[in-house]
Amino acid sequence: MMRITNPKDFWAGTLYVVFGVGAVLIARSYPFGSATRMGPGYFPIILGVILALLGLLSLLRAFRSDGEPVGSMAWKPLLAITGGTALFAFLLPRAGLPLALAVLILMSAAISENFKFGWRPALALMALIAFCVIVFVKLLGCPCHLSAVGSPDWYRPWNCCLTSSSALKRL
After folding, report:
1. Which one, of 104, 93, 101, lies nearest residue 143 by Cα?
2. Of residues 98, 67, 93, the one with CA closest to residue 150
3. How many angstroms from the chain centroid is the CA of residue 22?
4. Could you give the CA distance from residue 18 to residue 103 in angstroms, rounded to a whole number?
């Protein structure tokens, strides 16, 4: 009888297989295409298969090697990362990419015990936001708002402050 000797690998492998098979199942209705002319289903199916295969390898390793038991759940980081990602998704179409990225990065960094906000992290934050704006909006052409100006109705009470300020008019 086979016995699980490495619970961490077992549960990680199980998650990989579930997500990989899920990606393949979701993408199977998309046109696949070929390696030279990839369809919208090509990338998620290939990635899902690779993820499922890696999960199977991890599952096999769970029965062959010794490992530590799974520890307790780290709720604070889990909730902060999940909340930051949800807030990013909410803010992106409404407040713009730079503000949504700033919220996501700061929420994710704030859960670290070693994080202290100073001029170096602020500079790194601004550089990362500028890099993302250049790559995603300018180079890749993703249709993202860069500010709240021209955003949907929920932000309109603040738009008057943003559009009528003399500093903004000078720009």
Report:
1. 93
2. 93
3. 18
4. 30
